[in-house]
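Private note to self, pasted from the team thread so I don't lose it. Backbone tokens:
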């Protein structure tokens, strides 16, 4: 069996990104998203996430590896803010620019998340696949996030067990605070393309959210499949 989690980063960064993420969930293959608790549209994002009960909502941590000694306190602060915004614990943990992979940050995050039983990207039963991204070497490569590219990824990278593919869909507004901009609208189009969902059905890949992962992992471990 093959299961696929499709996670949108940057929920809460702007209203346009929020709108695109919800659309990618309702009309496309997106199953999860990760909330940035200190960004301008975070309250709107939390409200949208609560309204959309089938969407798994985790926390997208913003941390500075240069100040690793501050990480434990910052984890607690951002977690508490997530609870105030969303009203329930995150279904998963990841980080802006994947800084949780940094060896100065990683031990703090894993020690913090383990007692809560919250899966951390790249350190859970879900294999993290990060290559659905449209900017390499400082240049835009829309072909990397087009439909044909994603279909190839589904064929080559979604293996037995659970795979997480992260993405960055959304609508761009004036003053958007990132160089990864027009790529987001291309990602959104791809995630909502009917050919992608059809391929998932034909390949018998099951779409799941992070909220389903703990029970699934327990069942597969008991069966000796993970």
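Design output:
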């Amino acid at each position: 069996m093959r299961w696929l989690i499709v996670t949108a980063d940057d929920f809460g960064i702007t209203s346009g990104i929020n709108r695109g993420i919800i659309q990618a969930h309702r009309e496309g293959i997106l199953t999860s998203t990760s909330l940035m608790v200190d960004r301008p549209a975070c309250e709107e994002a939390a409200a949208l996430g609560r309204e959309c009960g089938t969407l798994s909502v985790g926390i997208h941590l913003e941390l500075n590896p240069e100040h690793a000694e501050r990480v434990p306190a910052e984890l607690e602060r951002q977690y508490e803010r997530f609870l105030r915004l969303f009203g329930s614990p995150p279904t998963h943990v990841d980080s802006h620019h994947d800084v949780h992979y940094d060896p100065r940050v990683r031990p703090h995050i894993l020690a913090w998340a383990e007692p809560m039983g919250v899966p951390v990207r790249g350190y859970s039963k879900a294999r993290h696949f990060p290559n659905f991204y449209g900017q390499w070497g400082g240049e835009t490569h829309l072909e990397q996030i087009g439909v044909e590219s994603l279909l190839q990824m589904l064929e080559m990278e979604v293996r037995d067990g659970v795979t997480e593919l992260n993405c960055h869909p959304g609508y761009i507004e004036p003053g958007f605070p990132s160089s990864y901009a027009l790529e987001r609208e291309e990602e959104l189009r791809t995630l909502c393309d009917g050919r992608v969902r059809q391929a998932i059905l034909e390949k018998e890949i099951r779409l799941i959210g992070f909220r389903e992962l703990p029970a699934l992992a327990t069942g597969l471990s008991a069966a000796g499949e993970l």
